[in-house]
Amino acid sequence: MDPSAPSNRFGQGTGLYGRLLLISPFFLWGTAMVAMKGILDRTEPLFLGGLRIVPAGLLVLAIAAVLGRPQPRSWRAWGWVLAFALVDGAMFQGFLAQGLTRTTAGLGSVTIDSQPLAVALMARWLYGELIGPVGWLGLALGICGIALVGLPEGWWLQVGGLLEWRSRLADLVSGGDGWSFDLDHLAQFWSGIAANGAWWMLLAALSMAVGTVMMRPLSRQVDPIVATGWHMILGGMPLLGLSAATELEQWQRLGLADWGAIAYATVLGSAASYGVFFYFASRGNLTSLSALTFLTPIFALIFGNLFLQETLSSVQGAGVLLTLLSIYLVNQREAIAARFRTGFRPQPSAAPVAMPSVEAAPDLAKAPPESAPNHSPGHPLR
Question: At 12, phi and psi to the nearest 5?
Fold first, then answer.
């Protein structure tokens, strides 16, 4: 074998540069969360969400034009693009920006990256994809982890108080007046939930998961890179419109460093990271690539602590560990199950999944829909 030939495996034989390039999207997504969080006290969330993705969408469309990608050609194709823009553009970025005002960048990134759990459930229901015992274990751990991260701090100590609803319901049936107290208690509880940023992030993760599941039928109508560019633009414009109508002083307090952070989140944290992600996704093993998604919240936690002095409580730390473990189990469920079936015996080496050079890359715009992969490596736009 020619030692100068490209590596056949992710991160092997490509040297330090290739390994760094491979993990760069996850580094950029995690640090972009920190960059956005760092300036939210001097701008408004809807303005920041729209300003991040509209220029990024223009960059992606410019790249798609250079590559000769076809534009949508039918009303059905544009309908899919608009639906994708609503769910994965406006809703995702709106919830993300609102969540960042109420939580840390690290916890927000952990919650956002729980979306493969929802994707696995929806793919099972819509497309019949198997989850398996390992996947179900990962989903259960993920639910526990998200609950530990997202529920109000004192809630776990007050669970016993919620059990009093049974006696208060009996009091209502018997004509007592305790139900009004329960409504007040319930309103206070849900108020605490709404003020907790992790739940806004969970809504963002669910929006992202729906967008990820939509990519399969969408890619049959529109080139995926073109669809991504348009959905950033069309999804960001309502956010900017809502910002103009409801928010004040969106940019007046921003300094030069703040505009630099916005540019970082837009150019590197959205457009460039997306391009690198798809470069590897079109050339290598998607399961191996998707296993790296857990690096995003790790980078966000590390840099959030370094630059924003963000810390975790012991309960939140346990939730983070459970969530990261669950993401790994769900992403790698087939490989782990195969290991158990074979009793961890070494298997004959299969034909490696090639990561060819740029010249050998397939033209995804001309590939038939049947050539698309049957599973998603996780949504790339953080």
Answer: -120, 130
Q: For 127-156, how does the pLDDT look when each residue is reduced to its tens digit (9 = 90+)?
A: 787 788 888 888 888 878 877 776 655 555
Q: Domain containing 234: what range?
A: 15-151+198-371
Higher pLDDT, residue 280 or 81: 81
| Listed residues 169, 195, 221: the one ending a domain | 195
Q: Give percent of the chain with pLDDT exceeding 90.
A: 28
pLDDT in tens, 55-100: 999 999 999 999 899 999 999 999 999 999 999 899 998 999 888 8
DSSP H helices, 220-365, are: 224-246, 256-263, 273-281, 286-290, 295-308, 314-331, 333-341
Q: How far is 161 from 174, CA to CA, in rounded Å?
A: 21
CA 280 to chain centre: 18
Tokens of 138: 């990962």
Residue 125 lies in a domain: yes
Residue type, 289: L
* Predicted confidence (pLDDT) per residue in 215-251, tens digit: 778 888 998 889 989 999 999 999 999 999 999 999 9
Residue 2 lies in a domain: no
Give CA 331 to chain center in angstroms: 14
Q: Is residue 7 part of a domain?
A: no
Is 221 contained in some domain? yes
For residues 93 and 219, state if they share a domain.
yes
Split into its structural domains, the chain has a count of 2
**Phi, psi of 19, deg, nearest 5:** -65, -40
Among 179, 195, 211, give the residue marking a domain's end. Answer: 195
Distance CA 25, CA 295 (A): 10
Q: Tokens in use for 286?
A: 């998607």
